[in-house]
Design a protein that fits this description.
The protein has about 300 residues and is of the alpha/beta class. Helix content is about 35%, strand content about 25%.
Length: about 300
């Protein structure tokens, strides 16, 4: 198997709102807020649902990789409920192997409200449900395991996270979200410096993690790191810092952006596709850019 993803199994509920809705509900645009079940249901009762689809950051990446013809799998815990059944089917129909045996649980399958504002930015309200309680399990046969920073928002998965890294041949991780970085800065910095082979981040997340204000300082950090640091920069494109080499790639042009949900997930899918299929670093960045450019021109985080 090429890549095993380990992450939160989340059902995405997509809704369109204006900026006032964010202000009225004390939400910060382009971030993810964790809520309990009661707050989640209250928020959802005031919204019109546009679309419901299986999601989760790393799961989205695994689907993208499968659509590119790679042999991939996903581990993420769901309940044996209606949403859990839909979740598993959404992966298996895309040829993503699903390594989790569902059973009856007290907590429901995790759900995320994705609020899309007129500028196509997405703001997320997440009730993790059972998703944050992932069994310690990793598959040694995979070339790379791919993890998400969101796993650190619940205590139990950290042990599975660390066990997976010990068993893995190579480990990649996405920092997930700037607020997620702020919540776990010390742990994430240790992971990036000492445990990860490949780190995916956007410009704001990596600046926050290492407490710098300029991108030149990020480049310096990446070179000193001596590993693979892959950074997306929105309209400015993307940069890969691999050991002492810096490779840049332009962003997509003339795009009709509808929804930025999944842009980072599909970028990671494209880059990892290149990595496991012996593309050059520049070609891998270009594949990531191609995938992210396609996904932001539609609603949701799945290409099909």
């Amino acid at each position: 198997m090429k890549i095993l993803g380990i992450g939160n199994a989340i059902i995405d509920v997509i809704c369109k709102v204006d900026d006032n809705f964010l202000l009225e509900n004390n939400l910060t645009k382009s971030t993810m807020k964790l809520v309990d079940e009661g707050e989640f249901k209250k928020m959802l009762s005031n919204l019109k649902i546009e679309k419901t689809i299986a999601g989760g950051s790393v799961a989205n990446s695994m689907v993208g990789l499968a659509q590119l013809g790679n042999d991939v799998a996903f581990i993420g815990k769901v309940n044996k409920d209606n949403l859990g059944e839909k979740y598993e089917k959404s992966l298996t129909k895309e040829n993503v192997k699903y390594f989790y045996n569902k059973k009856e649980e007290v907590m429901p399958t995790g759900t995320c409200i994705i609020l899309i504002t007129p500028d196509s930015e997405r703001t997320m309200i997440t009730f993790l449900g059972i998703a944050g309680k992932i069994s310690e399990k990793a598959v040694k046969e995979s070339e790379i395991i791919f993890l998400e920073g969101y796993l650190w928002d619940e205590g139990e998965p950290k042990s599975a996270f660390n066990k997976a890294m010990l068993l893995a041949n190579k480990t990649a991780m996405t920092l997930s979200d700037q607020f997620c970085v702020e919540r776990h800065k010390e742990s994430f910095l240790d992971l990036v410096k000492n445990k990860l082979d490949i780190t995916f981040s956007n410009e704001q997340e990596i600046k926050s993690l290492i407490n710098v204000s300029s991108f030149e300082e990020v480049i310096t950090f990446g070179k000193q790191l001596g590993k693979s640091l892959i950074i997306t920069r929105g309209e400015s494109g993307s940069v890969a810092i691999i050991k002492n080499e810096v490779v840049e790639c332009a962003g997509g042009k003339n795009l009709k952006i509808q929804d930025l949900t999944g842009a980072g997930d599909l970028f990671a899918a494209g880059f990892l596709h290149g990595r496991v299929n012996n593309f050059s670093t520049k070609e891998s960045l270009e594949k990531g850019t191609e995938m992210s450019s396609r996904i932001i021109q539609k609603i949701g985080a799945r290409l099909n």
